[in-house]
Amino acid sequence: MSSNSIEKLRTILKRKATIFHTGGRRPLDSLEQSWIGRVTVALPAEEQPVDVQGNAMAPIMQLYLPAMPFVPQAIRDVKLLTVFLSPDVLDHEDMEGYMCIREYTSVEDLVEKDFGEAFMHIKAFPLFPELIENDYPVWDGEDIPEEYGDALNNMDEEEPDYFEDIVEEIHAVHKIGGYPSFIQPGIDFGEGYEFMFQIASDAKAGLNIVDGGSFYFAKHQNEGIWRGYFDFY
After folding, report:
1. Pairwise CA distance, residues 230 & 208, whole Å
2. Residue 150 class from Cβ within 10 Å (0-12 exposed, 13-18 middle, 19+ buried)?
3. What is the rounded CA–CA span in Å between residue 99 and residue 119?
4. DSSP-based three-state secondary structure for 153
5. DSSP E strands: which ranges in 23-98?
6. What's the CA gap between 10 and 134, in Å, rounded?
7. How do residues 40-98 score in pLDDT, each as one tens digit?
8. Do 75 and 219 contact (CB within 8 A), yes or no?
């Protein structure tokens, strides 16, 4: 198998991403600090979001995007992004109506708010960003797009093993940009949707999404609608 062919495919596939490290350093006393398990601000008129059954959603993440080394093009105008989830979200395969993502293109009018206990009562921790230059998709058989499957099959000599020969590392952590670190194969957000960020199980914060799973969030490129999905082992 040609090393040049492998390197060419790696170059085509790899994407930039910002991954997050939970805690380990003193948080900034500033709105520029990102958090897991905490949302501190909103517009004056914004109240605690509720799900389709009228239950209060809980805060789970707050991201200050200008501090990120990489942000997808579709949300580069966003300064602050906050995420709330319904306590019943894991009981519904479709997350619509059980999640709330708020985007702010300016932070000037935001005020401090107390949204109560975090989702699943997880412990709040500051998040510290790190740039990743080479995030790769988690592909398992049917997930591989036809054009890349053909490239794999047409390589010199023996057929390569995707995870051993192509992928350098899978970043199944809190992440913005790059690829979703799906655990289950065959996932598709739908036409026009682009993956934006994920919230992963986090031992330090005490967040376990069923069994080591993750939440994934995609945004429609034209309509701006958010769609969520979760899976687990």
Report:
1. 12
2. exposed
3. 11
4. helix
5. 34-36, 41-42, 58-64, 80-85
6. 8
7. 999 999 999 999 999 999 999 999 999 999 999 999 999 999 999 999 999 998 999 99
8. yes
